[in-house]
Structure formats: C-alpha cells, structure tokens
Amino acid sequence: MSDLMHTPNAEAVPDAADGALPTHSAAERESARKRLEARQGLSADAVSYVVVNAFLLGVWAITGSGYFWPAWIMAAWGVGLALHAWDVFYRKPITDAAIDKELRRHDG
Questions:
Q1: Is the pTM of the predicted complex or chain greater than 0.85?
Q2: What does the DSSP 8-state code read for residue 87?
Q3: Which of 28, 35, 32, 31 is nearest to 90 (CA)?
C-alpha cells in the first residue's frame, strides 16, 4: 500500500505483513544491496554461459560433430561459474568478531 520511493539513505522499509516499519542501519542496507548485486551478476554470468555454449555446440554440430572440443570451454567456464556461485551463496562476510579473533591470534 505504501509508496516509499527508493532512496539510498532510507532507514526504514515498509513491511507488507503488518504495516510496521522495521529499521535497518545503513551498513545492513549496503550489505543487502551488495548481496543482491552479486546475485544479479551471477544470473548474468549463467545466462552468458548458456548462450555462448549453445552457440559453440551449434558450431561443433555444423562443422561435422567430430572431436567434442566445446567440452574444454564448457568445463573451464563451468568451474569459474561454480566458484562464482559459491562466492555468492556460501561465502560468509567478514565480521568485526572475525577480525578481532584474527588480531588476537596474530598478537599471541
């Protein structure tokens, strides 16, 4: 119902469930924005992977379907895409607690 416009420094976003306005710090909003951008980037990379490799499969099929050379490109690019997916979905952000722990480990 509420029409809040997107503003970079907004501190509150309406909650559709109960109408309350939860507050989020600027750091939380920035972190969420970065996660969303990372997911969008992964989606774009996945689409590129499918389109380019479909084209390469077409070239391979048209040129005689001999040695399956597209597999090298698909495998190498697939490893990069899998690492990107791991970075987006499984890698945890570095927290202040982790930094403090590392500093204590280094000092001791």
A1: no
A2: H
A3: 35
